[in-house]
Each structure stands twice: as C-alpha cells, then as structure tokens.
User: Fold this.
Amino acid sequence: MSDIRIRRAERGDADRLHFALSQLSRDMGDVHATSLDMLKQHGFGAAPTFFALLATRQEITVGALLASPIFSTTRGGAGLYVSDLWVAEQARGAGLGPRLLAAAPDLAPEDWTVTFLRLAVYHDNPDARRFYERLGFEARQEETVLDLKGEPLDNLRKRP
Assistant:
C-alpha cells in the first residue's frame, strides 16, 4: 500500500479523474452523465465547485475522491460533501478508501476549513454502508436528503 501516492488533482489530471469516475459509475451500475468538459469547467475553472484527489501507483490511477464544500450553521462550520469515492479492484482491501477520506480535509482548499465530512450511501449497497459506519460515519436520523431537478427545478425557477 505504501507505493500508492495520494495527491490533489489538477487541471492536467482531468482525463485521469474522468476515467476514475466513469469506472465508479460502471461499478455502481449508474449512468455516467458527466463529460470531461464538465469536469474541467466545474472542477478546474475560475470558481471550482469541487476538488478531487487521485491515488496512483506507478502512474496508474487506483483511486479517486471528489468532494464539494458545504456549510452548516448547526455545525458552525464548513464541511466536505464526498460525492464520489472509487478504489480500483486491484487496490481494494488494503485501506485505500479510508486513506482517501482521511486525506480529503487536509488536501481541500485551505480556506474551506473543513470540520466534518458528509456523504450518501445507496440503500441497495449495505457493504458500503458498513464500510462507512466502521469509520465512524453515522446516519442522520433527523433529516432526509431531497433533490430537485429537471422540470420541477425549471418550474421553481420560473416562479415570480
């Protein structure tokens, strides 16, 4: 495991990051709707909406993490929403996932001052839930995450 290097992704890593995230989508059976251009625009533009970590072993990408800043008035600080965590099959079982999560607060942009991590787990993925619970993540019983997208979002935006 010590031959794996974790570092913050830069614009020149967009192809590598896109590959890792597409592998995650494939592994999860998800649609991979993000394009390389979208990653470049939103992650490496003038006002990035996320940052990413890459784990490499001899220049081969074996892991990735993508996170965005969130702010909580009830927690009194900023946190990271980890939207994507991927470990290549050949690197699984050696603690790379926890290493990526542990590195995220330290490698986030300095002015984000990370005080907590947040993530979501699919209901049909109990292995992932057990993985995160072993690390100390706790389900928030007092809240439900809601999404607004597509036509309902368009309708909301049209309201006077």
Summary: Helices lie at 14-28, 36-44, 96-107, 126-134, 150-158. The chain is about 35% helix and 25% strand. The beta strands are 4-8, 51-57, 60-72, 77-87, 114-119.
